[in-house]
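User: I'm curious whether this sequence folds into something compact or stays loose and floppy. Could you predict its structure so I can see for myself?
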Amino acid sequence: MAETLIPARKGKATWLARGGSVKVINTPGSQVVDTWAFVAGEMGECMSMEHSRAAMNRLTPKIGDTLVTNHRRPILTLHDDTSGEVHDTFIAACDRWRFEGLGVQGYHDNCEDNLHAALKELGLKAPKTPSPLNLFMNIPWQLSGEIDWKPPVSEPKSFVILRAEIDCIVVFSACPQDIIPINGVGCTPQDAHFEVLEPGAF
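Assistant: Here's the prediction. I'll summarize afterward.
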């Protein structure tokens, strides 16, 4: 299948039929990809990190784990992962207020706006901005409760495959964060890609 570009600092959305899968490719190896999923025909039901942690009984998904919606219905299963299985389910999507807090003056691209812009391209609108599944994002935590912000551990062209458990719309943002090194030590957002795989493609 042809790869679809997720432009650096921008977002892209796609329809995904039940049983189909999407392969999310960390093209440079260092790019975080914020990921959301909404139930087709019911944008108020969406993939939920807080509900998913309870369903998975773990903090971040591993191969075979299923993420669920805010109605606790399965929506995406992590079918494969060559990136090191280091992802984040705690950090909210960056937004204009996050960058204001980091000292940015004027507008800065952000994942929240990317989500809504990508949905608008499909003629859709989300009633809110859910917390995303931050693919490839490396947020180590300590037993003391402290967290840190580290570059991804993934390698160039590493990927995850997410299988749809229900008809849904999946949205990606190539995170524009360029103040702290979550997109690599160079703090430079880059392109990522995805491929939609039909049922039975693997």
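Summary: The chain has a mean pLDDT of 96. Residues 111-121 form the longest helix (11 residues).
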